[in-house]
């Protein structure tokens, strides 16, 4: 299996659309090539997105979790790259190749459950027609959505040294509490950036709140479609929409993007939201947490 940085390097290629169709599919084509030999197949035949599933979507029973990561490059970006500045600093055109790479790595790990679908979307930088296409796909297939995890980069959390941020919390509170518990117990640095600064849940640690309204991303569009969602973002520094690239901490990249595993029982809305970062300590922590949930709630 390719390592994380190698996948990021391979995905550091352009991908464009005109708001209706993809006009340059270089990154999407690379993802498709990487998926050869895996269980993942493309589940849609049209639209400004590519949805990957391990099984035919109509065979999935119970609630579904969708990971949404946009692949379109903002029009000011004319070339893509990634390189090491030093041992712990990466430089590249990471909006949004770096979260594309994270979820591709997790897909190739073979450990995501079958009720997790992965959408690579277009037009996020303009009108989010890719996310709207995903919303139509959900409705056409009558999917019961537990949550949509939007992956993106952010300007927030860099100054505080955060490994990740939780933003645009348009979620069900039961799900939100589980996510916050995982983040708090992870031992990693993180911040919370509210979607509604005047409606911050009381279970958010006050010392971790960045008191501004989170930037618009695909979560806003999913929320408009009444779909529960939030954004899990990687802090970066610099001008995102230019050929010079932005900085990302290599250590945060290795910690940031978790593998999300959700198991559902018929009587429980959430059995487990398990976040496994690409870090051995957090990986073990997530498995220990799953065992604890099973013991406390008597779940199999």
Please describe the topology of this protein.
Layout (H helix, E strand, L loop, with lengths): L3 H7 L5 E2 L4 E3 L1 H10 L5 E2 L6 E5 L10 E7 L11 E5 L2 E4 L1 H16 L6 E6 L7 H12 L4 E10 L9 E7 L2 H13 L4 E4 L24 H7 L4 E7 L10 E4 H7 L2 E5 L8 E5 L3 H18 L3
Describe it.
The model is unreliable at 257-287 and 292-300 (pLDDT under 50). This protein has an 8-stranded mixed sheet with strand order 3-4-8-5-9-12-10-11, sandwiched between helices. A 3-stranded antiparallel sheet has the order 6-7-13. It has a two-stranded antiparallel ribbon with strand order 1-2. The chain contains 8 helices and 15 strands. The chain has helices spanning 4-10, 26-35, 94-109, 129-140, 173-185, 218-224, 250-256, 280-297; strands at 16-17, 22-24, 41-42, 49-53, 64-70, 82-86, 89-92, 116-121, 145-154, 164-170, 190-193, 229-235, 246-249, 259-263, 272-276. The radius of gyration is 18 Å and the shape is globular. It is α/β, with parallel strands linked by helices.
Brief characterization of the structure:
The protein is α/β, with parallel strands linked by helices. The protein has helices spanning 4-10, 26-35, 94-109, 129-140, 173-185, 218-224, 250-256, 280-297, and strands at residues 16-17, 22-24, 41-42, 49-53, 64-70, 82-86, 89-92, 116-121, 145-154, 164-170, 190-193, 229-235, 246-249, 259-263, 272-276.
């Amino acid at each position: 299996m390719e390592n994380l940085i190698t996948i990021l390097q391979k995905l550091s290629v352009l991908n464009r659309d005109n708001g209706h169709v993809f006009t340059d599919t270089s990154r999407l084509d690379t993802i498709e090539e990487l998926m050869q030999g895996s269980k993942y197949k493309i589940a849609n035949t049209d639209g400004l997105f590519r949805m990957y599933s391990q099984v035919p979507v109509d065979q999935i029973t119970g609630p579904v979790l969708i990971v949404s990561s946009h692949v379109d490059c903002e029009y000011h970006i004319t070339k893509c790259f990634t390189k090491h500045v030093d041992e712990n600093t990466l430089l590249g055109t990471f909006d949004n190749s770096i979260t594309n790479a994270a979820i591709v790595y997790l897909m190739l790990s073979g450990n995501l459950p079958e009720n997790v679908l992965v959408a690579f979307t277009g037009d996020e930088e303009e009108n989010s027609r890719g996310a709207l296409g995903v919303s139509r796909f959900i409705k056409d297939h009558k999917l019961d959505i537990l949550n949509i995890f939007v992956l993106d980069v952010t300007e927030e959390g860099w100054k505080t040294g955060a490994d990740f941020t939780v933003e645009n919390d348009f979620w069900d509170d039961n799900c939100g509490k589980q996510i916050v518990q995982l983040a708090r117990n992870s031992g990693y640095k993180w911040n919370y950036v509210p979607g509604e600064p005047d409606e911050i849940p009381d279970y958010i640690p006050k010392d971790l709140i960045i008191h501004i309204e989170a930037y618009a991303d695909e979560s806003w569009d999913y929320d408009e479609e009444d779909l529960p969602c939030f954004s899990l973002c990687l802090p970066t520094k610099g001008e995102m929409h230019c050929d010079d690239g932005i900085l990302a901490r290599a250590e945060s990249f290795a910690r940031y993007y978790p593998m999300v595993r959700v198991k559902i029982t018929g009587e429980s809305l959430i059995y487990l939201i398990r976040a496994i970062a690409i870090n051995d300590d957090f990986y073990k922590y997530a498995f220990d947490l799953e065992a604890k949930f099973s013991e406390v709630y008597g779940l199999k």
